[in-house]
What does this fold into?
Amino acid sequence: MAEAARRLTALAEQVLGTPLPVRLRAWDHSESGPPGGPVLVVRRRRALRRLLWRPGELGLARAWVAGDVDVDGDLYEALDLVAGTFWELGERSGRRSRPAALAGALRDPGVRAAAIELLRLSGPWTPPSPPPEEARRTGGPLHTLRRDRQAISHHYDVGNAFYERVLGPSMVYSCAYWPDPGATLEEAQQAKLDLVCRKLALRPGQRLLDVGCGWGSMALHAAREYGVVVVGVTLSREQAAYARKRVAEAGLTDRVEIRVQDYREIPDGPFDAISSIGMAEHVGSARYAEYAADLYGLLVPGGRLLNHQISRRPLDDEATYEVDRFIDRYVFPDGELAPLGRTAAQLEEAGFEVRDVEALREHYALTLRRWVANLEAHWDEAVRLTSPGRARVWRLYMAACALSFERNRIGVNQVLAVRTPESGASGLPLRTRAWLADGRTAAKDG
It folds into this structure.
């Protein structure tokens, strides 16, 4: 008699100490749990072995990427229900880390008995190999030049054609700026690029450094619309090749140079302005002071930096911060998030004057939902261009991140900072947000 789902539900509820928030369907086609909502599908018993060998988030991530676990129904609803349950579990454990909370649970005799029962259900007691999409890092200590190149390559060198399907024609891989929720993704991304240019008060003939230039969209927009000379740097060779082709097709090779180069290797400053859009998350806490100091040194006195960066909520004890294991192994290896306050403080410690902070949290949720819709609309093609596991990684991480932005678990902010000269003249208008009005007046006001 098929009953794996009932046994799994009972075990999960014993471990969690709360009812399972979603319905569960097992490999033997049995089902258990609340009806009427999304269904968590355990396709293979191998998923249980993954959880037993790597309890918690990493085991679940491997099961998802390998296709051992899936969701039938609304993915957002399923993720929201499951994330809420684990959030409550963390609260009950005194906001301890997830491994610490799990270790505490396993001291309970009933939970240990449940783990033994899970062993019986899981099949042959051998550790499954991680999916091939999992990052393998061999570059030595965190955030050396070599290791950072490996991390960037893992994320970005998966095929430009794949990213075209996900990002759409704009080829911008950062939070859009939505004039209204009904705008197209391309309109919102162009609005973001223009907002950055206006905040930097770009003028014809100035030099702009675009750190982490991606596929060249910011460099192209700034050169074409504001007449600046742009140096864009990226560690991704595939991005650089794509961006150079776009620059050539736009006839802007005299004004835009794309380099495969680290921000720590730029020899030809100073620049009048610097944009860093969605790159600083890769820097890491150990290197952030160096990053801020390097950008400060690359600016002329009076030059502006626009730092567009994802943030996390501050913790009571920052020493307990843990990188999200799924994101670290499958999406952004070695990436780290910091609270907004710490980012602003480190920029000022490097010498910058922080002049404006704009939170775009809801904008990123809208952006991510559009990216997920693009991926789902081109699913078969995305799988062909990469792999089934890679497509599953991107679908899960973008959907989960959309919910995290909506629930205020993470945020994203544009920080405008100035290398204010000794005279104290910042060069900004008295009404700092004049750039919100429009178009080409901000440069005159600045």
